[in-house]
Amino acid sequence: MSESINTQKEVPELGFWRDPAKRAWVWQGLVIAALALLIYIVVDNTVTNMAARGLASGFGFLNTSSGFGIITHPFVDYAETSDYFTVFLVGLVNTLMVAIIGCILALALGFVVGIARLSSNWLVRKVATFYVELFRNLPLLLQILFWYGAVLKPLPGPRELHTAGDSVFFSVNNRGVIFAEPITGDGFEMVWYAFFAAIVLTLIVRYFARIRQMRTGAQFPVFLTGLGLIIGLPLIAFFAAGSPLSFAPAEMSRFALSGGVTIIPELVALLFALVIYTAAFIAEIVRAGIQAVSHGQTEAASALGIKPNHRMRLVVVPQAMRVIVPPLTSQFLNLTKNSSLATAIAYPDLFAVFAGTTLNQTGQAVEIMAMTLGVYLTLSLLTSGFMNWYNSRIKLVER
Amino acid sequence: MSNPSEHMGGIVNAGDLPDKPAPISTEGPVAWMRDNLFSSPLNTLLSILALFLIVWTVPPALNWLIFSANWAGGADACRANTGAACWPFITARWEQFLYGFYPAPERWRVDIILIVLLVGIVLLAFERTPLRKWIALLMLVPFPIVSFILLYGGMFGLPVVETSRWGGFMLTLVIALSGIVASLPLGIVLALGRRSTMPVMRMVCTIFIEFWRGIPLVAVLFMASVMFPLFLPPDVSFDQLLRAVIGVAFFASAYMAEVVRGGLQAIPKGQYEGAMALGLPYWKMMRLIVLPQALKIVIPGIVNTFIGLFKDTTLVLIIGLLDLLGIVQSAINDPNWSIKSVPYTGYVFVALVFWVCCYAMARYSRYIEAKLHTGHKR
After folding, report:
1. Is A388 part of the contact surface with chain B (CB cutoff 8 Å)?
2. What is the rounded CA–CA span in Å between residue B191 and residue B188?
3. Scanning every residue of chain A, which has its alpha carbon at the shortest distance from the alpha carbon of B317?
4. What is the CA radius of gyration of chain B?
5. DSSP-derived pairing of the beta strands A167-168 and A176-179
6. HEC string for A276-315
7. pLDDT per residue as tens digits for the range A161-203
8. Between B204, B232, B325, which is nearest A139 by CB?
9. Is residue A273 pLDDT above 90, yes or no?
């Protein structure tokens, strides 16, 4: 028996090219060789070109002083004497600020519009559809230029709005949005402590409510309790500490407003455009996600006697989230990457101040682009890593 | 013939009585409004808010755009009425917006290409067109080459038109179309590579795709204009436009690869196995069995990628190329037209052009999607 199988094995040896495994190794070897050659040529050319332009490579330039001013640098101490590394930090913080605020606002607006597109109200549905179709099909750069150049810049200046000596608590003018600066007095830290205590308490309440529901089936209004705690406790602490908060208004001198907190028009325009544009896409994702939950689920929930708002919260939304989260991730990534369009209106984000001004001044193209791209790639990886983690938590558990 | 009940003299009505109208509460505009606008207190409130929003925005917008807009005259007419759109700004400049700085006697070359493009797209959009496959092939391969020769010149006695003179809507189309035509084959190769069984291919393709998808297009264009010359030997230099197109094509090919990969994953395993069982080698299996099915289901995705690319071409103004948005942006700053309403008019015009193109493509993609979606719907 075994001999007959052995005789069967007398198939002639496969030729080298006929064996897919061997062929695969040849192809892969060729690809590696071609890539190595390409990298060698590029590196060689770059080194030659850099030498021809008299540029020293390396990151030493980061320690030299920049010599230019930046209009806004929250959280980072910056002056014209600061070095280029500080410029990098300022750009990074500004980019992160736009990305984080933009993602939160776009998510909120997108959810509202997405649900409005499924509303039973005809008028609301049409308005939401109009919004989505209008802003989704217009280039983002056009929207940024429009908000900046056609809406915010033509606003009247501070001198036309206020007379010298005025105390201004809130003002929208062509210098941006200016409001009084909140100044915290002694004992304000009590409010922060109360705030964090309220968050911890809410989590504890949620934990016990869940245990109780598992045991008895009785539900506890965790959301309302938590809201009451998070708003109420800090308020009590605030008054107990004797209202230690005052507002320092901006003062109008003869020519300009000084003091107060200023949100520059570049930031406002960028956020407006990014949020409105991205929210239109998020709205479509939310709508598609909710519609992807089959009717049987809603009907089964109704048959079980679950109330409409519980039906939405406990049955429809958790299933819709599975469809919503993956494309939502790419929208957040898009928003972060699109924030680099700031360079068109000179908002000092990472791209404008570092890959723009700093590169022009120092000429260290390779190092600067490597750092800038590194930041964007890291942000991409972090965002998609976080969303993948969230996605794996909510996804359908199958056999 | 008369009613039979009259002849029988009975009390039974043998004929049909005329239908009574439906109760007023279930039909007509009032019932419709009650169902769709005022079904609950919350809905009533929302309706009133939406109505308020519409009244607040739509009539002033229409008024600004159409009714009190300046339609004729020159800059002076607009200067007299700055409260509404200044369309003479567009009519005075439309040739520049379309052709950029392309020399006037040579503009027929652009016209021919635009007409062929339009006819090709219309033919391709209809299912019933005879020889549709051949037209598609013609539009994808020979058309871009012929277009480039015609636009650039330097052959067959056509004078050379430097790419620095290209601009306006024509440049937008050149960048977007060459980006998509180049990215389609590259994207397919990358998608196949990412699903390959060879680890090196898979890794190279994955890194390539994730790199381009992780960086902003502004950075790509910036690299194309600042870094690319550094990578080349000192005596080789590339045209600025060509560099931008290469950057855009790489960028788009990464997105295209992910779209195609989605299609490849959606093809049931049986199709692959069936092709292998028939003894088809890899490329034949892909070309004859898998790709025709995969590409067909990702047509909506490809169109959506193209819409994104089309909108993103506006970014080339950051590296100094004057596409439609760039050329309008620079025309706005013309001192002869320094009128309050001109920037708005310019932006609205650009918005209109982009919106019409993108919306048409989006509708087409949705139509294909609906046709491909044969599942049950409710």
Report:
1. no
2. 5
3. A344
4. 29
5. unpaired
6. HHHHHHHHHHHHHHHHHCCHHHHHHHHHCCCCHHHHHHHH
7. 777 777 777 777 777 787 777 777 777 778 888 889 889 999 9
8. B325
9. yes
Give the single-character DSSP code of B163: G
> End-to-end CA distance of chain A, in Å?
42
What angle separates helix A84-116 from helix A317-338, to the nearest 10 degrees? 140
pLDDT in tens, B246-296: 899 999 999 999 889 888 888 888 888 999 899 888 888 888 888 888 888
Residue B188 falls within a domain, yes or no? yes
Alpha carbon B174 to its chain's center: 14
- Which residues face B166 on adjacent strands? B100
User: Which amino acid, one-letter code, is at B151?
Assistant: L
The complex scores an ipTM of 0.84
DSSP for A91-143 reads HHHHHHHHHHHHHHHHHHHHHHHHHHTT-S-HHHHHHHHHHHHHHHTS-HHHH
Contact A301, A307 (CB under 8 A): no
B347 with A150: Cβ contact below 8 A: yes
Domains contained in chain B, number: 1
Domain coverage including residue B302: 87-102+161-372
* A355 close to A368: Cβ distance less than 8 angstroms: yes
Best of B39, B208, B222, B338 to mutate (most A CBs within 10 Å, chain A): B222
pLDDT in tens, B89-115: 888 888 888 888 877 777 788 888 888
Q: Are strands A170-173 and A167-168 parallel, antiparallel or unpaired?
A: unpaired
- A377 vs B: CB within 8 A: yes
- Let me know if residue B40 belongs to a domain: no
Contact of A35 with chain B, judged by CB distance below 8 Å, is answered with: yes
End-to-end CA distance of chain B: 47
Model-level pTM? 0.84
- Cβ contacts (< 8 Å) between A284 and chain B: which residues? none
CA count, 13 A, side-chain hemisphere, A356: 20
The CATH number for B173's domain is 1.10.3720.10
What number of residues does chain A have? Answer: 399
Residue of chain B whose Cα is closest to the Cα of A338: B216
Q: Is B348 helix (H, G, I), strand (E, B) or coil?
A: helix
Q: How far is CA B245 from the centre of its chain?
A: 18
pLDDT reported for residue A2: 47
Q: Is residue B305 part of a domain?
A: yes
Which position has the token pair 């850099």? A50
Structure tokens at A298: 């809603």
| Burial track B30-45 (b if 16+ CB lie within 10 A, e otherwise) | eeeeeebbeeeeebee
Residue of B94, B259, B287 lying closest to B191 (CA atoms): B259
Residue B367 lies in a domain: yes
Which helix (H) or strand (E) element contains residue B358? helix B341-372
Collapsing DSSP states into helix, strand and coil, what is residue A181? strand
Return the DSSP state at B104: G
Q: Return the HEC string of B183-230.
A: HHHHHHHHHHHHCCCCHHHHHHHHHHHHHHHHCCHHHHHHHHHHCHHH
Cβ within 8 Å of A, B 290-309? 307
How far is residue A72's CA from residue A91's CA, in Å, rounded to a whole number? 10
Nearest to A166 by CA among A248, A249, A252: A252
The answer to whether the CB atoms of B50 and A121 lie below 8 A apart is: yes
Residue of B nearest to A134 (CA): B355
Residues 103-132 of A with CB under 8 A from B: 119-124, 127
Cα of A40 vs its chain's centroid, Å: 37
What residue type is B261 in one-letter code? R
State how far the Cα of B88 lies from the Cα of B77, in Å rounded to an integer.
9
- Is A393 near chain B, with CB under 8 Å? no
